[in-house]
Structures are given as C-alpha cells and as structure tokens.
Design goal:
Blueprint: E1 9-11, H1 14-31, E2 37-42, H2 46-55, E3 61-70, E4 76-82, E5 92-96, E6 99-100, H3 104-114, E7 121-130, E8 139-144, E9 149-151, H4 156-166, H5 174-185, H6 191-201
Parallel strand pairs: 1-9, 2-3, 2-5, 5-7, 6-7, 7-8
Antiparallel strand pairs: 3-4
Helix pairs in contact: 1-2, 4-6, 5-6
Length: 204
C-alpha cells in the first residue's frame, strides 16, 4: 500500500541512471525495433529520451509535456500542457518516460500521440516499471515489485524539497531535516546537498 504522507524512497544516482538507460537501449535494440522518432514525455522522459537517442543513434527526438494537477476532490489527473508539434503519420515511434506508475500518464500520452497523425507503430519504454501500474510498457530496464517513490537525479531538489516544505513542525536546521528525511523516507544525501536544499526549500 502506498503511504502518500511518508512514502519510502529510492534515490537513483547519475551513474545508476546511465546504467539503466544503457540496459534499456540494449533491450530495444535486441528486439529489432528501429524507431523513426523518439518522443519523450515531459518532464520525466526528457533526460531518458535524450540518452536513448544517443545509445540508439536516433537523432530525431521530440517531446510534449503532460502536467498533473488536482481536482477539487483532491484526485490526481493529467492533461497535455504543451502538445506535440511533430506529425507522426507513418512513423515508428518510441514513446519514453522515466517510470510507469499509475498508468495515467501513458493513457493520456498514447491518446495524444494518436491525435497527431497515424503512426505506423508505437512502442513505449521506461526506466522503471512498477507492477502496480495497469499499463505495461513494451520495454523497461527494471521492474519494481515493492512500491517506493523513485527519485531520479534530475528531480532530487524538487522531490526532497517538497518533503522538507511539508514537514510539521519545520526543521530548525539542515541536520534536523536530514535526520527526519532518513527516518520518514529512507532518504540519505551528502550533507552539502542537504544544506543547499534546506536553505532553498525551507518554508518561510
């Protein structure tokens, strides 16, 4: 069961991310799929999409952004904020995101992609596939059976900062924030990184 108040977290380092991306690219290449265009779902898919374009030697890379927001009843929803500019008619598409979790992002993304032409084929790829997701991507580097919130290296400040701002009472120091992050979320970061995040994201 997901604890939305104090979720357990896993921080992915840059080197671990690169290894995941390499493994993902190898799976795609070994399957024989040769995309004509890579489409990254923003924001989570931006960095994986760029690295996959390098590994797969496919320079045709584009994106669109899906934004999550809350309704009045506090239910999560997703919508396309910045649409795809490219026409994908007749093209083999590789749709890339960082993680498949709720499945909602991919439901919205696939509907939007099909509205931008008639692609020859669409296959999806993620770094992590959480088995709670009703949507199973075509390719994934790692399967996550036990749920945890995955913090990618390009989102450390955003995710950890949000945990710091939500603390009640607010921590009085970076060291206190570090202790509480470790206890509540299993997050451990270098002290210099925590000090920066504490100063930037503490509530005023």
């Amino acid at each position: 069961m997901v604890d939305s108040v104090s979720p357990r977290c896993e921080i992915i380092s840059w080197s671990a991310f690169h290894d995941l991306a390499r493994r993902l690219a190898r799976k795609i290449a070994d399957s024989g799929y040769r995309p004509d265009v890579i489409v990254a779902i923003g924001r989570g898919g931006y960095v994986p999409g760029r690295v996959l374009s390098d590994f797969l030697d496919q320079m045709d890379l584009t994106s669109f952004k899906i934004e999550h927001y809350r309704h009045a009843r506090k239910q999560h929803a997703a919508r396309v904020r910045y649409p795809l500019a490219a026409d994908v008619t007749g093209r083999r598409v590789l749709l890339v995101d960082d993680v498949a979790d709720s499945g909602e992002t991919f439901a919205v993304a696939l509907a939007h992609l099909n509205s931008r032409g008639a692609p020859a084929e669409i296959r999806s790829a993620v770094l992590h596939y959480k088995t709670v997701s009703p949507y199973v991507p075509d390719y994934y580097a790692q399967k996550a059976i036990k749920w945890r919130w995955i913090i990618y290296p390009w989102a450390v400040a955003e995710d950890v900062g949000s945990f710091i701002r939500a603390m009640r009472p607010q921590p009085a120091s970076a060291d206190e924030a570090a202790r509480r992050l470790a206890a509540a979320h299993g997050i451990r970061l270098p002290r210099r990184v925590l000090a920066d995040l504490f100063e930037i994201h503490k509530a005023h």
